[in-house]
Amino acid sequence: MLDPLTLLMVGAGALVFREMNRKDYGVLTPSRDERYRNVMEYCHQPELLLEEANLFNEYGLKAQAAMLKRRAEWRARPPELKQTHEEIYQKALASENIQAILEVAFAFEGWTATKKAANLRHHVQTIQENMLKKAIEESSLEAESKKGNGVAEAKPFTNPEIIDIQPDKDVIHDDT
Description:
Blueprint lengths: L3 H17 L9 H13 L3 H13 L3 H14 L3 H16 L3 H13 L3 H34 L29
């Protein structure tokens, strides 16, 4: 006769084997993907997000489960931390420092605040477009100022026959 612990281990192993060999284990089917996206966007209750994370984990969808868990942690932040994050976000939106804004966007993305990250990246794009427009305007103004009133800058005429050019004594000329 087998001891109960061995029977329990064999039974658990069989259940795990059966679960892992299910047809759609670890597969993000279209319906699961839709559910995942809806929960990520519209669910604001951390407890429900954690339940969904456990469910996705049971179906072998580890990446989605991890993101749902992060979203639950994001939603469960204390009010002081929410205020601090909002201040950081607003400061980044008012900034012109592209590198710093992108770092803040990366951090928000890591916290699953993808809309805030997208807004920050859009802000960076706007800054870059404005910088490009400014550079184009400056270069066209510079070109206009060089043109002046149509009169080109005159260089003094020098006749090469008049200029007395002495060969440099230190230079070795090879006539080969």
